[in-house]
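re: ur question from yesterday

yeah so i grabbed the chain u mentioned. its 484 aa long if i counted rite. heres the sequnce exactly as i have it in my notes:
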Amino acid sequence: MSTKKGIYGLHNMDVRQLREFLEQHNKMGEKFIDVTITSPPYFDVQSYGYKNQIGYGQEYNEYLDNLQNVFGVIHDVTKETGSLWLIVDTITRNNKFLNLPNDISIRCKNCGWTLSNIIIWKKNKTRPWYKMGLRNIFEYILFFTKSDNYKFDSDKIRVIDFSQLKQWWVGWPERYNTKGVIPTNVWEYPIPTQGAWSNRTTRHFNPLPTKLIERIILLTTPKNGVVFDPFAGSGTVLGVADFLDKRWFGFEMNSQYCKMFQEISIEEVRQELLSENRKDKELQRLQKRFEKTIKNLRLMKFPKVLMSQIYHSQILDKQENKLNTLFALSEKLTKKEMGLLPENKIMSENILLIFDTKIEFENLTNQIMVLSGKKPLSRFGIEPKVQALTKNEFIDKYGRKVDSLKLWLYTCGKVNKFHKKISYAQWLEESEKDEWKLYFKNGVPPIVSNVRVWKKIPKTLKSRKEQIESLKDHYKKILNENSN
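ran it thru and got these structure tokens back, copy pasting raw so excuse formatting
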């Protein structure tokens, strides 16, 4: 989408003409923008090479008035689910501190935007014109929304920091989101290298990292969504939007930047993201494996916790019940079936309590289902289908189906490592023997499942002694390297 089609494309225009431009294209009465991402001029810090520009050469209040007018027009044509992201920094003038992020926030509030969050962009480099006693290595990303119903798809940017997994994660899988954690409000993206040290052809006073822009677009836009940058510069925002197959448009007064975007930048951004995303693929594979592992650990722990809650609630007497086996059978759901699950449920599992003798099953099943909807069981994200049957009823109703499954036996309350692989025929035989009772622990019967889990509890916490020894080894390594 590198060519102009109606409003879409990069326009060599002053953004203060935005209202007239949209009226010309019959867009002022339409709410069509999903997200606006931009880094507005930093007042008079830098000239961008054209006359009558916003910021450079203006009085401070005139500069803020111009920004308020621009962001007001953008607000009028943004969807109710849309958002505005401004990358800004503080500045000093005559040894006085100007809180530009705060002043811009007030002006955005004046035209209807709500400041919903502030993100710190840790860029690890300073602008060459920044003069302070301390190096400034971060900027602010101001996140504004138009309504409470804004789009923010955090699942698109969840990450799994394997170095932060505690040693009990295997035993407590319900505490870990299967897709990873939402990143913090400190985002670390280095400024793209420029000048003699760079391979980039694009030149701009304030280049933005492509991966940072990609994250914002993934968070905020639907398929075929609309991305806008009113101060496009060399066009990083627009290039990333193009790479992600979004509709996009932007304004830039500097004709050289517009030319650079068409001839160089859009392809540079594309190649950079292709390269970065290739690096991400291995991490994505690891995250998929982690997601599957967490789900399987949850599926196996759920029936164990269920039994503990059943006894705690005195639905069954641990000493008197004639429970023989607990079958925990995971269901593979279609996308449509997934959509029918209750809110906060991501899996479905058949929990079959197999008894040696008949009891009041209907009342028991109803009580267990009520129990499964309460904490701690509700934290697992599992929609259970609980049934209580005698062994003969189970054989008649489920025998043929279960006989076709690969099954694993979990014993003595251990659900992170299976005891052995077991066939349906083996279960029929072994569950009749007295030795079967040896597989019970604290009233939890042997669990037979089509879910395979073999995960040792990792040791990630070091003792004080181990920490000191590790530090000594580190210092020795440094000293050896220096001596060589």
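noticed a couple things. DSSP finds eleven helices and 16 strands in the chain. also The domain at 9-288 is CATH 3.40.50.150 (Rossmann fold).
anyway ttyl
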